[in-house]
Design brief:
The complex is a heterodimer of chains A (about 750) and B (about 280). Chain A is α/β, with parallel strands linked by helices and about 750 residues long. Chain A folds into 4 domains: about 35 residues, no CATH class; about 240 residues, Rossmann fold, CATH 3.40.50; about 180 residues, Dimethylsulfoxide Reductase, domain 2; about 130 residues, Beta Barrel (Barwin-like endoglucanases), CATH 2.40.40. Chain A has 24 helices and 26 strands. In chain A, a hairpin with a 2-residue loop joins strand 2 and strand 3. In chain A, helix 5 runs parallel beside helix 18, helix 6 crosses helix 14 and helix 9 packs parallel to helix 14. The longest helix of chain A is centred in the first third of the chain and has 19 residues. In chain B, the strands form 4 sheets. Chain B has a 4-stranded mixed sheet with strand order 8-1-10-9. A two-stranded antiparallel ribbon of chain B has the order 2-3. Chain B starts with a helix and ends with a strand. Chain B is α+β, with helices and mostly antiparallel strands and about 280 residues long. Classes of the chains: A alpha/beta (about 750), B alpha+beta (about 280). At the A-B interface, strand 3, helix 7, strand 10, helix 8 and strand 11 of A face helix 3, helix 4, strand 2, strand 3 and helix 7 of B. Strand 26 of chain A pairs parallel with strand 11 of chain B.
């Protein structure tokens, strides 16, 4: 049958057809099935069961932007992840997220990701196939390579869960004990003191139960332990009984910015202040718990006037803090980076912990934590002691093969340790990496790994904030964007298969993980919410699994302390504070455009570095906002712009961490300065940690000016009331206690 | 509007501002930001960038004041008499206040900015001709102009894959601002309609309120007396209406206030005063 189609008819048909298509195209998806024999007309409008056009589906996963282990929900639409929000089921973050967590999508979609394996050929890294990369790896580290176990090393950031297990397993198979776990932003000294004095490395802190929090440099709202969790607890602390926050630190952190009273003690003397407060409390008999008289005797030298002389904190203030701790209790006294990372850091933190003991806070605001039952899955927390050990091993030429994962020692190590230089002495360096950072670009073999949104994993947060212990699942939120990236676990598994046949039964890391999770001890697996489901399904849906654990009470005991303040007349009068902030963190997020564009919380500077100075010091130097200064230590110097404010001790200069990358993609490269580079190689005496806050510097005017790019036209409200402040007293009169 | 019409519907046209004036509102979305527990951490701002396809402008353009931060956190140093900022810093999340009597609306020559029946101060991008009168007239400085075609360099591939398909990427010459996450409001409305119910409190959570780690931001319908926002507004004696509001004399110190209330713009955001322990 021949049908004559003229133009008019054709348009008519097209019109009806078009309307039909439009009708089927929108609203609820139409199913055109294989049975109807029309599979060729199925368009991307109805791709898969789980991808309905226009409808976002949320999947649970875990944030890998810092070590806190917050639970995430990722919004997936048309097969790509668009936005992440906190997982409300996670006891770590209760559905909330910080700026770094939100930015995880920009790490995932980052334009500077490494998209194929690279091998060093001559002096350059060249793209190679995975086959070539894996055969190189096999020849260097495989069973027939003849590599000596003790000459193999692995540097990682904090690891936990099955990643930690598989790293342990590989190193055990190779016969190496050289696992360096390195983080610049850490709480190692705090953990050591907690372990020695309380018997728990990471005790649970009840901010919400405290009437007054005295924090010696612990930026718990920004960078300390588990910031998002802490912020939630902080809100309860403010809302309920209206607690007061006192922050002692040389440079105002985000936490300091929120304090009721911000006290700048002379850097490195925080321990003396804590002991002075303790002494005053004991003298007055305000202590809640009796301490041996020998303690009182040893504290007697810390009289108010002596402490004022050492710390620069006026007697009236010390008295006030002591009486606040007594009147407004229960109190909570904590210590963070600017107290820990001095040569006397351990003793300073121990002095701080003594206050907790004296005030009877143990068991009230500080409790034993719920440790995860399976020990091998617990977090291996990063520190700077391992960085020093690594630097030494590199210098002494102790390593032939070095793996790096999730860490960037070439950037974070002080220049004087010469980590970057001595890396070239290692015969074969393998970098598991997403980005071309400083360490990765020095490697001989670069293995591009999946992003946190593409990979499988399990994470056990080091800080367990609940009475039951949590394990958080990281599951892919979408297909890998780049064809040539692989999961870290997958690569590790294929290396393990070379040496241990037991791993042959796992096709990939996913199946390994599934089996490993199902085989976890009964006290984990038997305690799954929603009993009808198995643990794996439950984890996929909820993102977390909780394990009930019984905890013992903390058993506080005193340690031998000898707090000493170091006298320094080396010609470097100022203290360098390399301050960390929520955002760029230790520099690992400098390649995320959002985090570069968001102002620092205190200085409000964007896209660069700056040095914070007190107005008095600035006047002495004759500098104003935006002028360049040169900060010189015995180990080097950096030049950056000045931001002047009254939230810093006059003897301190603070340069934030994060910038100063030589590599690391278009957003980070060649921007600002890295204060870690000019640190002196000083060690905390008792723990062997790098004393990052102990470096003395001098600051000179560089006689150069550029406009300081920062948010906000006005530093003050100029009498207008945008942010109004009332006193607690007023609040009680009007709104009552709650 | 004929004279007859005015006479016949006199009571309608003479409605007070509290009742919506000449608007027939379905909802009047509003917000409460508690400055006492706001830590100034920037989480809200980041969530806003992620949700609303905000462009990253870079250092040079930031310097010229061209940053597109619909929600920004200001930091003020004030009342520092001594040597140190002992009271800490003062943080203020600033975003479009979606004023009930918005000063930006009447000056738009093409009616690109107008008031929706949801009480939102909306911006119609394809109507905007970029006169920037609105931004000139905004006392809060929360309108952001696209001086450049940011899509050309803000989202190099594959960063563009993160863009939220629920709303547009704006081009050069267009004014933009906080929309109270209008796409989320739209989705919630559709969902409620499909489920044949009225929208309930909590159906819409803006990106900033969702992310806020301390829960300082509460969002909801101020016309729904049962909503959390309404209850907070009532507790703190803030009412709709474009005039400086008198509070109960016995309770002058109640914490709620609206910024620039004296300008009679009827902002939809109530701030709660920061409380600090001055005895310390």
């Amino acid at each position: 049958m021949s049908v004559k189609v003229n133009r008019r008819k054709f348009l008519k048909m097209l019109g009806w057809g078009g309307a039909g298509t439009a009708l089927t195209g929108c609203d609820l998806p139409t199913t055109v099935t294989l049975e109807e024999g029309k599979e060729e007309v199925v368009s991307y409008l109805m791709p898969e069961e789980y991808a309905i056009p226009g409808i976002g589906v949320w999947y649970a996963s875990t944030c890998t932007q810092c070590e806190a282990g917050c639970g995430l929900h990722g919004r997936v639409r048309e097969g790509r992840v668009l936005k992440v929000e906190g997982n409300p089921d996670s006891p770590v973050n209760h559905g909330k997220s910080c700026m770094m967590g939100q930015s995880t999508v920009q790490a995932h979609y980052n334009p500077d990701r490494i998209t194929s394996p690279m091998m060093r050929k001559g002096s350059t890294l060249q793209a190679v196939s995975w086959d070539e990369a894996m055969s190189a790896l096999t020849s260097k580290i495989g069973p027939d390579s003849g590599v000596k176990g003790d000459r193999v090393g692995m540097v990682t950031g904090t690891v936990s869960g099955h990643q930690a297990v598989i790293i342990d397993e590989l190193l055990a198979q190779v016969g190496s004990k050289n696992h360096y776990v390195h983080e610049v932003i850490n709480t190692s000294v705090w953990s050591s003191v907690c372990r020695d004095m309380l018997g728990d490395e990471m005790p649970k802190l009840n901010f919400d139960k405290a009437g007054v929090i005295l924090s010696f440099g612990a930026d718990f709202l920004g960078t300390w332990i588990s910031p998002v969790h802490n912020m939630g607890e902080y809100a309860k602390f403010r809302k309920g009984a209206r607690g007061s926050l006192i922050q002692v630190e040389p440079k105002m952190t985000l936490t300091g910015g929120n304090a009721d009273l911000w006290v700048p003690a002379k850097p490195g003397t925080e321990g003396a202040l804590a002991l002075g407060i303790a002494n005053f409390i004991l003298e007055r008999g305000w202590n809640a718990v009796d301490v041996p008289s020998s303690v009182g005797k040893s504290l007697s030298q810390y009289t108010l006037t002596a402490v004022e002389k050492v710390t620069g904190v006026p007697v009236s203030k010390i008295k006030r803090i002591a009486s606040m701790l007594t009147e407004r209790g229960p109190s909570l006294v904590i210590a963070g980076a600017s107290t820990e990372n001095h040569e006397n850091g351990y003793d300073a933190v121990a002095s701080v912990m003594l206050l907790n003991l004296v005030m009877g806070n143990i068991g009230k605001t500080i409790e034993a934590s719920a440790k995860f039952p399976e020990k091998a899955l617990r977090a291996k927390q990063g520190n700077t002691k391992d960085l020093l050990l690594l630097a030494k091993a590199l210098k002494d030429n102790k390593l032939d093969v070095l793996f790096t994962y999730n860490t960037n020692p070439a950037f974070t190590a002080p220049a004087v340790l010469q980590v970057s230089e001595s890396l070239s002495g290692v015969g074969f360096k393998v970098a598991f990496s997403m980005f071309p950072d400083e360490t990765t670009l020095q490697a001989d073999l670069v293995l591009p790994i999946h992003s946190g949104m593409e990979d499988w994993g399990t994470h056990v947060p080091a800080y367990q904030p609940d009475t039951s212990s949590v394990l958080s699942l990281q599951q892919p939120l979408m297909e890998p964007i780049h064809k040539e990236t692989r999961g870290f676990g997958d690569i590790m598994l294929s290396l393990l298969k070379l040496r241990n046949k037991d791993f042959g039964k796992f096709a990939d890391y996913y199946s390994y993980l599934q089996t490993a999770v199902a085989n976890m001890p009964a006290d984990v697996t038997s305690n799954v919410e929603g009993a009808s489901k198995d643990i794996w399904t439950n984890m996929l849906q909820k993102g977390i699994v909780k394990a009930k654990v019984s905890t013992n009470d903390l058993s506080p005991k005193l340690v031998d302390m000898k707090f000493k303040v170091k006298q320094d007349n080396s010609g470097y009068p100022m203290h360098l504070v390399p301050s960390a902030r929520l955002g760029l963190w230790d520099g690992r997020h400098a390649n995320i455009p959002w985090l570069q564009e968001f102002p620092d919380q205190i200085a409000k500077v964007v896209w660069g570095s700056w040095a914070e100075l007190h107005p008095k010091k600035a006047a002495e130097l004759g500098v104003k906002n935006g002028d360049y200064v040169r900060v010189t230590s015995a180990s080097g110097s950096i030049e950056t712009q000045v931001y002047i404010h009254k939230g810093i001790h006059p003897d301190a200069v603070s340069v934030p961490l994060g910038q100063g990358h030589d590599e690391f993609g278009r957003y980070a490269k060649g921007r600002g300065v890295n204060p870690l580079k000019i640190l002196n190689p000083l060690m905390e005496r008792r723990t062997g940690e790098l004393a990052t806050h102990a470096t003395r510097v001098k600051v000179t005017n560089a006689h150069r000016h550029e406009k300081l790019v920062h948010l906000g036209g006005s530093e003050s409200q100029v009498g207008r009331k945008f942010v109004k402040t009332i006193s607690v007293d007023q609040l009680r009169r009007t709104e009552g206690e709650a | 509007m004929s004279f007859k019409n005015i006479l016949e519907n006199f009571s309608y046209y003479r409605r007070d501002a509290e009742d919506g004036g000449h608007h027939d509102y379905d909802h009047r979305f509003g917000m409460t930001i508690d400055l006492d527990i706001c830590t100034g951490c920037n989480s809200c701002s980041t969530a806003c960038y992620a949700e609303n396809n905000l462009a990253v402008v870079g250092k040079e353009r930031f310097e010229k004041g061209q940053a597109m931060h619909w929600m920004r956190v200001e930091r003020y140093w004030d009342n520092i008499e001594g040597d140190y900022a002992e009271e800490g810093a003062k943080f203020l999340p600033m975003l479009c206040q979606n004023c009930g009597a918005a000063t930006c609306e009447p000056v738009c020559p093409v009616a690109a900015t107008y008031h929706t029946p949801d009480g939102l101060n909306a911006q119609v991008y394809n109507r905007c001709i970029g006169s920037r009168y609105c931004s000139n007239n905004c006392p809060f400085r929360v309108r952001y102009f696209n001086f450049w075609s940011y899509y050309e360099d803000s989202w190099p591939e594959p960063l563009n894959m993160q863009l939220n398909p629920d709303l547009t990427v704006r081009d050069k010459g267009v004014m933009e601002k906080c929309t109270f996450c209008v796409q989320r409001i739209r989705t919630a409305k559709d969902k409620a309609q499909r489920e044949e119910r009225v929208m309930a409190d909590g159906d819409v959570v803006t990106a900033c309120a969702q992310a806020c780690p301390t829960g300082a931001i509460v969002f909801g319908d101020t016309m729904d007396p049962g909503s959390r926002v309404s209850k907070l507004w009532e507790k703190h004696q803030i009412h709709r209406g474009p005039f400086l509001q008198k509070k109960d004399k016995t309770n002058e110190e109640i914490r709620g206030y609206r910024i620039f209330d004296e300008l009679s713009v009827d902002p939809s955001i109530m701030y709660l005063e920061r409380v600090r322990d001055t005895e310390v």
